[in-house]
Amino acid sequence: MRIPQSERELTWWEKIYLPEVVRGLAITGRHFFVNLARHVLHLLGFNKVPKGAVTFQYPEEVRPISPRLRTVHRLARRADGSPRCVACMMCETVCPANCISIVGAEHPDPNIEKYPVRFDIDLGKCVFCGFCVEACPEDAIRMDTGIYDFAAYTREGMILTLETLLSLEPAPYVKVPPQDRAADPGPIHARKGTVAPL
């Protein structure tokens, strides 16, 4: 009968842990000297040798991030500054972590059905799956702020409100769509063909 590994008693040699400590030091030393040799060879002009590992001194030195990385959310604005969100609840429905909470209201512009009165995202619950971005029919919610190092002392501090989400800007590496860079046409009620707010 085979004894499971977890129930097997350690031998005297295994109990002193010394061989495993020596083995760990040998592995660490091998990585150190291989990286050192690669860096020295690159300094001497041997560029065909693979580069040695580089350690980023975080947080003083920030590692370059991929433009596809999903970071903290933001809400896109229309050209007049109002939120692009139409409170359709698609993101709230598709969110597997139930971290999005939206309260909608009728919009004064008849061309826009609704707008969010309240839009909260609890980053403490969010799993950064990006389903909310994919489900949004208005391209209103995006995860391109480049902010990934966030923290708070309280659970309430992890909740992003509508004002916070609208104030966040895209990261410098993000290409802003042309419709977001259009000139501001002024308030919605001042435009032709729209109904003044009640």
- Whole-Å distance between the termini? 83 Å
The number of distinct helices, counting runs of at least 4 residues, comes to: 5
Structural class: alpha+beta
Share of helical residues:
10-25%
The shape, in one word, is: elongated
- Average per-residue pLDDT, rounded, comes to 86
Residue share in β-strands:
5-15%
Strand order of the largest sheet: 2-3-5
SS elements, strand count: 5
Radius of gyration, in angstroms, nearest whole number: 27 Å
Largest sheet: 3 strands, antiparallel
Order of helices and strands, N to C?
Answer: HHEHEEHEEH
Low-pLDDT residue intervals, each spanning 5 or more residues: 193-198
Could you characterize what this model shows?
The protein has a three-stranded antiparallel beta sheet with strand order 2-3-5. The longest helix has 26 residues, at 18-43. The chain has five helices and five strands. With 198 residues, the protein is of the alpha+beta class. Helix content is 23%, strand content 11%. The protein has helices at residues 12-15, 18-43, 90-94, 131-135, 162-167, and strands at 74-75, 100-106, 114-122, 141-142, 159-160.
